[in-house]
């Protein structure tokens, strides 16, 4: 049994920042994860970042799903973009990921989003299978490009 909460106060937002750091370590990306707790809290306070936090019966943080909104000019509606989905290791394999992503889908539907969107690391085959089972469709028609603007 897990409880899902929106990160809607400073204490939960600070916890979200901590879980984001744990995710970076899990993905071996801690060297590029430069966001501080203050940075993450500012994104929340500006209304740019949203998060669902999962807790076990004892109140221990078990996982996080972060998301934000983009727009589709072709549909004239919002897109809900999941940036992070992370389940702490001891809580994996118990349906928590499905519970979080289903909760996020419900939020997307309630906000009249035209689609949900996310990325997955190429090496993370378990996540790819999870997303496929969720109904995710791999986009092989678009390539992702980026340009780093920080520290130039």
Describe the SSE topology.
Layout lengths: L2 E4 L3 H17 L10 H9 L4 E6 L5 E12 L4 E11 L8 H15 L4 E4 L6 H10 L18
Parallel strand pairs: 4-5
Antiparallel strand pairs: 1-2, 2-3, 3-4
Helix pairs in contact: 1-2
CATH class: Alpha Beta
Percent in helix: 25-40%
Strand order of the largest sheet: 1-2-3-4-5
Q: Please indicate the percent range of residues in DSSP E strands (runs of 2 or more).
A: 15-25%
User: Any low-confidence stretches, pLDDT <50, length ≥5?
Assistant: none
Could you describe the largest sheet, including whether it forms a barrel?
A: 5 strands, mixed
What string gives the helices and strands in order? EHHEEEHEH
What gyration radius follows from the Cα positions, in whole Å? 16 Å
CATH topology: Aminopeptidase
SS content category = alpha+beta
Number of strands: 5
So how many helices?
Answer: 4
Description:
Pfam families: Acetyltransf_1. This is GNAT superfamily N-acetyltransferase. Keywords: Acyltransferase, Transferase. Residues 1-152 form the N-acetyltransferase domain. The chain is an alpha+beta fold. The chain has one domain (3-134): 3-Layer(aba) Sandwich (Aminopeptidase). The chain is built from four helices and five strands; from the N terminus they run E-H-H-E-E-E-H-E-H. It has helices at residues 10-26, 37-45, 96-110, 125-134, and strands spanning 3-6, 50-55, 61-72, 77-87, 115-118. Strands 1-2-3-4-5 form a five-stranded mixed beta sheet, sandwiched between helices. Helix 1 crosses helix 2 (37-45). The longest helix has 17 residues, at 10-26. It starts with a strand and ends in an 18-residue tail after the last helix.
């Amino acid at each position: 049994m897990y409880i899902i909460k929106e990160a809607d106060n400073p204490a939960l937002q600070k916890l979200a920042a901590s879980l984001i750091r744990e995710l970076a370590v899990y993905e071996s990306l801690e060297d590029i994860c430069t966001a501080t707790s203050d940075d993450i809290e500012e994104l929340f306070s500006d209304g740019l970042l949203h998060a669902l936090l999962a807790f076990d019966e004892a109140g221990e943080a078990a996982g996080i799903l972060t998301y934000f909104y983009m727009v589709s000019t072709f549909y004239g509606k919002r897109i809900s973009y999941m940036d992070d989905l992370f389940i702490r290791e001891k809580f994996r394999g118990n349906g928590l990921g499905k519970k979080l992503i289903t909760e996020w889908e419900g939020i997307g539907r309630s906000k009249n989003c035209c689609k949900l969107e996310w990325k997955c690391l190429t090496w993370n085959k378990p996540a790819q299978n999870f997303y496929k089972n969720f109904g995710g469709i791999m986009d092989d028609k678009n390539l992702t490009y980026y340009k780093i603007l920080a520290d130039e």
